[in-house]
Amino acid sequence: MKKYFIQKSPFVVPTNDGKLIEEHHGIPTTNNPAISIAHMIAPPHWKEPFQTPEFEEYTYVISGKKQFIIEGETVVLEAGQSIKIEKNTRVQYSNPFEESCEYIAICTPAFDFMKVHREEE
């Protein structure tokens, strides 16, 4: 038995906001509740509602810029920068800019819709 797994078919999460989410590792792809790793592309002017997830989230920006509102503070990351947001932190993710933002997101434990706690808009 091999001691590695190459992900060739990530799960494409259905969205209705134009955002591409390709989950490579996590609950829907590898049935791993400990971690999720996703490649994402957020289109210009995209945003999510505020949320208070029960997991840590790490983001690494590949290209473009991504905005975070973290406990009321606005932070903008550019290509080559990364951030760790602690679990149980109120945050909003967005791309209010004119170009797409490509990034990698890692959640520990894995992203779970039942544990993200998105607010009503």
TrEMBL record:
<dbReference type="Pfam" id="PF07883">
    <property type="entry name" value="Cupin_2"/>
</dbReference>
<dbReference type="InterPro" id="IPR011051">
    <property type="entry name" value="RmlC_Cupin_sf"/>
</dbReference>
<dbReference type="InterPro" id="IPR014710">
    <property type="entry name" value="RmlC-like_jellyroll"/>
</dbReference>
<protein>
    <submittedName>
        <fullName>Cupin domain-containing protein</fullName>
    </submittedName>
</protein>
<dbReference type="InterPro" id="IPR013096">
    <property type="entry name" value="Cupin_2"/>
</dbReference>
<feature type="domain" description="Cupin type-2">
    <location>
        <begin position="40"/>
        <end position="106"/>
    </location>
</feature>
